[in-house]
Amino acid sequence: MTCVQLMKAKPFLTWQKARDSCISMNADLLSVNDKEENGKLNPLVRAHIRSRDLLQWWIGIREVGHSWLWLDNDEKYAKIPEWAAGSGRFQSTPDNKCGLFTFKGTLEEAECEQEKPYICEKFNKDIPEPIDYQDSYENDKTQDGSSVSADTEGPKCDLPWEKLHRTCVQFMIAKPFSTWQKARDSCISMNADLLSVNGNEENGKLNPLVRAHIRSRDLLQWWIGIREVGHSWLWLDNDEKYAKIPEWAAGSGRFQSKPGKCGLFTFKGTLEEAECEQEKPYICEQFKERSLGETCYEVSQCLATQNVQCTGTGTKTCNCQSGYYTITDSNRCLKRSLGETCNEVSQCSATQNVQCTGTGTKTCNCQSGYYTITDINRCLKRSLGETCDEVSQCSATQNVQCTGTGTKTCNCQSGYYTITDINRCQKRSLGETCDEVSQCSATQNVQCTGTGTKTCNCQSGYYTITDSNHCLRIRETHK
């Protein structure tokens, strides 16, 4: 019998680095001793498969002198162990090959420098007998041994990570233990950090988990993510400071602000201080992608990838940068088009003549006097002939109206001629085009006539005086 840990956190490792990692946890790459052990390992491996890159795992066998050698003994195989029959891609070749255990329960060879997940085996002689500190352990176990809290909120955690409230944690109990800083460095190497306890509710869920991991007296205190900074206690995940202890940790008699101290979580659910250079087990908290509105340590944790920030007074949260609107359903930070909801005008993608107003729910909409052009998401004045809702939207400022049956347009008032090129409504001088006589600026003896294009011209019997734009009667010559 043995204890194993399936190491599938990325980045994966080469065979030698995988072995070094196991050894750092007082373990080694797994050696499979017989058919019975293989039969028990195979379903365990299958239970951990979450993606195609978890179909093969480094274990403790490698090619040495044209034979395969297990790490835990000197038994050599020219080709494959009997129990691994069917391993068609497992032969002894003198080119630096190492052994992989597959989801089929067989062995395969691969270049030792390939990066793969791996399986560590705990040294049996170092597994202590459990002591009776599990009286309040309230978590159930799934069939594959992963921990599932009674609450249904938060992420699903892959072994060896366990669910704690809204995050995933891992209890690092392998010897040698670590100082506070080395413990934090270890967590960060796994895309995690030392655990920050965010309140009484989370403390209540953490305490039974800690008790469940106690196997010896040196597992009664655990480094977590709190340390003394400037005579106050500061959590790693936010700027909230305590002069002595958080309210939820009442009863922590050995927790005061002193220079150079770091925080321990105890099996009693309280905090204690200790010299940061002491070596202790520790609890890592996995960096999970956080939705908008959820707590975060840094912006890289936020699920939204654009226009997002991780900020806040005290507890930081993933939130949209200034000028971007929070769309909760799709977890995105976006500018808002005309007609879409907004909180402030800076969130509107239209940049000119726009406002964010409304009774109750506010929307991005055009300022008074500007017309909404949905297709191009702009607020513009309207030229003569273009649709409008009211006359103030027309760019022509004189002699214009917004009228029409059904769809209204900017058009010239009666008696004024539409000059499209300059977008103006004007009276017409003699000789200029017109549609009707009322558009002519000359008011007497004038007409609007013509074949095809009509022009303002003087009636019959009247002479055109261009300079003064008048029509004067022609005098008859007396004989």
Level of helix content?
under 10%
Mean pLDDT: 82
Side by side, the strands of the main sheet go 5-4-3-6-7
Identify the CATH architecture of the largest domain.
Roll
Shape: elongated
Number of strands: 35
Q: Decide which structural class fits the backbone.
A: mainly beta
Largest sheet: 5 strands, antiparallel
Write up this protein:
The chain is elongated. The protein has 4 helices and 35 strands. It has helices at 15-24, 35-47, 180-189, 200-212, and strands at 4-7, 27-29, 56-64, 67-70, 76-77, 97-102, 107-111, 118-122, 140-141, 147-148, 162-164, 167-172, 192-194, 221-229, 232-235, 241-242, 261-266, 271-275, 282-286, 308-311, 317-320, 325-327, 332-334, 354-357, 363-366, 371-373, 378-380, 400-403, 409-412, 417-419, 424-426, 446-449, 455-458, 462-465, 470-473. Mean pLDDT is 82; it is low at 125-151. A 5-stranded antiparallel beta sheet has the order 5-4-3-6-7, with helices on one face. The protein has a 5-stranded antiparallel beta sheet with strand order 16-15-14-17-18, with helices on one face. A 4-stranded antiparallel beta sheet has the order 11-12-19-13, with helices on both faces. The chain folds into 4 domains: 4-124, Mannose-Binding Protein A, Chain A, CATH 3.10.100.10; 156-286, Mannose-Binding Protein A, subunit A (Mannose-Binding Protein A, Chain A, Roll), CATH 3.10.100; 381-419; 427-473, no CATH class. It is mainly β and 479 residues long. Strand 4 (67-70) and strand 5 form a beta hairpin.
